[in-house]
């Protein structure tokens, strides 16, 4: 019990920890196996949700996590919690006892781990849910007992199989990667066997990594903190192949030996060096939410998987480890102008394609059609002296041939794009991008890198008709001299350097950016749940309301996805602070369940503690008067351009404090000029004015047929591959008109109604439940009956 509360600093430390221990290989070097955060009142913030999110794909490589007795509830974030646990292979024990998870949440969790998730086929063997409010049902207890019993039997079977195998090289080289063995682990090496819950097998990385990063570990001889200075080259081993561990036992001797500071001085000089303009690449991502048709009606624009492309580009340049600056921004015309003004040498544009336009964003989530003539005028006038705006451009979009030739006509010597008449598959674009940029970054010529990228598409197992897909990429001009490199960069010991990467998405689990000014409160924004989709038009309307109004209420029934939309919106705004200048800071406050007479504290105290953690408000003595807390909040926000999100305000309903919350908002609006509030609740406050500010209400309804089927296909364990999801969508959604209808719309057919009813009538939480509770037989019967 440490009174961690909101836990923003804890989350920040863990994210930095994950980034630090991530190596170039696909394995991890993570000495932290057990994390106990019980009795810390984490329910007042988002720390627990963020930490559990880091378990996804084994990002935070824990064996045991204890978040018991923290007042945790599920709310709209429960989808992400279950998804993270379902996509973890390393966690052995998870303690969620003495919290307040709903029966629906428990059912979803048990369904995930029993349907091939973290239970029988992976690692989770101990799951504690005792003392939950409400208590587990008898059926849930029996199901939990059966699942864990099966999981433990499977783990024992794997353990005995592994114990018969000889020790691998990876196990013997484990210490060379900085995970100093414990006394128990040393005995395991001596006995030539491995313990079921011992440290992970870590793949060896570049020897230089060992020389550059001193590690701090617990030394068993001096019982204190030892400094371990790792030498170049492989560690020695004795005659029978067991790894020698004397270097660990002599850590104290190494620590007090004379130190040569020349390497440290060189590293400091390297960090202060600025890459040349030619070794800078800016990536512009275009993700508008809607466009208007000829009837002036809003049509949604499906979100591309920019997170995957960003991560891929990041990994390419990290693997190359050259002195190249990589930055990310959203694609608006003024950011394109800013990129040219800064004389950035290379440009990568990623977005939806169109034969006659580049699809840029406007400044409020809408689509900006930028014609090729306007593009040519923009880039031709943006460079001093009329020279080439860039030395290299990659237009990653369908039908981008005309746009590519526009850049060529403006003087760009090397342009990669797609044939004008071609639509580019996402998998092909990713395969080409990965291979092309890695080759380009390490100094290969544009011509060689282009051919390497095409061959990567040709041999990719994830690209159908790969030979045809590789032919869609074009290098312009056709008669240009591309047998030259783009980058002339020196190798660096660590990439990125302090200022080596800017503007990386805050939505990414690992905060890559070091110098983009990301604030602590932005880092603690909740992550949208798995399968968040189909809300583009809703998000557009809420975004524009938030940008123009000071108080917006997003209302709808429980489970409709209010909190999911609000968190996705916060990330969308946070990624666009360079253009959405009316919001500089975002605070996200998820209300906790009422405890006794603590109703008001469920909203105000978490908000106040976030301000304290961010250094914006003074830490008042425990038990301070609420009026003093209010004044501290108002003073901290008096000159700040902030968006404050109060999520699940309905928890105040039926309490005396429910009358105090509108008074708090009224005073907040009077005492500040640039603070905006987004509230999610089951119903609006219903007051005409609050401190001279009116309430703007938006109602969130269910998903339409197409979005419901897509969400079901993503979540359902019976649908395994992307190709199966595509076929299911084609099978069930056969009419464009029906695809846009919800279950209560006029004109809906019996077939559409039957599909929606089976999948939860478009309510995301019900769709989630239906997906994970559907057995294989029920799924097959449904497909037969619906057709």
User: Main β-sheet: number of strands, strand sense, barrel status?
Assistant: 7 strands, mixed
Number of beta-strand segments:
22
| SSE class | alpha/beta
How much of the sequence lies in strands comes to 5-15%
Shape: globular
Tell me roughly what share of residues is in helical segments: 25-40%
N/C terminus separation: 57 Å
Give the radius of gyration: 28 Å
Q: Average pLDDT across residues? A: 79
Number of helices: 30
Q: What can you tell me about this protein's structure?
A:
With 787 residues, the chain is of the alpha/beta class. 38% of the residues lie in helices and 12% in strands. It contains 30 helices and 22 strands. A 7-stranded mixed β-sheet has the order 16-15-14-11-7-10-17, with helices on both faces. A 5-stranded parallel β-sheet has the order 19-20-21-18-22, sandwiched between helices. The chain has a 4-stranded parallel β-sheet with strand order 1-2-3-4. A hairpin with a 5-residue loop joins strand 12 (357-361) and strand 13. Helix 14 packs parallel to helix 15 (401-409). The N and C termini lie far apart (57 Å). The relative contact order is 0.08. Mean pLDDT is 79; it is low at 23-27, 117-121, 169-271 and 499-520.
